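Whiteboard transcription, Tuesday session. T.W. wrote the structure tokens on the left side:
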């Protein structure tokens, strides 16, 4: 068994502290103050409290590091080589509807490379973590992506565009779904990209694709998938952290998913 480094332990502790506040608020979700950042994009008092717990702890544990945070935004640090990428509550809509499928996601980018990441499934008390050179782990179990080679045996996760996205985004997603559903064993939409990626690393999903994500949604999960032997690409060939469009799977399935999704997207309206 590989144990987390000192840095990994810092990320895990930060995630646990945020998870503690979320677990408390989840039981009182009907009383939370909720506002909208935009159409279909909700933020609650729970997001703010969890992010504050992470920020305060990491500022003390690693002073000088920078931050990219969902609620606080960009915080420049004196150390320009290290920055945390933080989502205090991935799966906000699930959380606000009392559905116990949400996570804390924290990654560290070092010298422009995703280095260490933690995804904490609060409801199941599962901490997925990965770090460069140390592999990916869930508790004492080393994670490996699933070994399936054929799409017709594979369960693939995705995320759907929601209210507020241009109609072209919905049309493109419909084209992708129409292309994928006849050729895979099943498609799942669970509402947390961070957990979707962690589950790819754990072999619970065989692959994942989604568009329109933010860096904090996927950074930690990308590290964990990588360290579990999987791969991640941008749907149209760019950088997932920049565009928010992502495909993730093992080496055998990834090119097949790429081909199918890109082919479907080519016939859909342009949303750029």
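and on the right, the sequence the group agreed on:
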């Amino acid at each position: 068994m590989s144990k987390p480094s000192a840095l990994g332990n810092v990320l895990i502790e930060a995630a646990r502290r945020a998870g503690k506040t979320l677990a408390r608020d989840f039981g009182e979700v009907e009383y939370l103050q909720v506002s909208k950042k935009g159409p279909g994009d909700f933020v609650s008092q729970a997001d703010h409290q969890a992010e504050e717990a992470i920020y305060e702890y990491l500022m003390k544990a690693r002073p000088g590091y920078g931050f990219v945070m969902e609620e606080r935004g960009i915080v420049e640090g004196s150390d320009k080589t290290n920055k945390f990428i933080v989502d205090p509550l991935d799966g906000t809509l699930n959380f606000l509807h009392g559905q116990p499928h949400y996570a804390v996601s924290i990654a560290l980018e070092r010298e422009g490379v995703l280095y260490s990441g933690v995804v904490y499934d609060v409801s199941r008390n599962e901490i997925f973590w990965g770090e460069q050179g140390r592999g990916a782990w869930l508790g004492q179990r080393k994670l490996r992506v699933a070994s399936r080679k054929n799409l017709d045996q594979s369960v693939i996760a995705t995320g759907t565009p929601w209210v507020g996205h241009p109609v072209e985004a919905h049309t493109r997603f419909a084209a992708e779904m129409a292309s994928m559903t006849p050729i895979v064993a099943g498609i799942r939409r669970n509402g947390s990209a961070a957990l979707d990626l962690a589950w790819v690393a754990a072999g619970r999903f065989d692959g994942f694709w989604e568009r329109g994500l933010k860096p904090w949604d996927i950074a930690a999960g990308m590290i964990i998938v990588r360290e579990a032997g999987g791969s991640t690409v941008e749907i149209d060939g760019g950088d997932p952290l920049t565009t928010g469009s992502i495909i993730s799977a093992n080496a055998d399935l990834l090119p097949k998913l790429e081909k199918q999704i890109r082919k479907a997207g080519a016939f859909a309206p342009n949303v750029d």
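Someone added at the bottom: The domain at 151-266 is CATH 3.40.190.80 (D-Maltodextrin-Binding Protein; domain 2).
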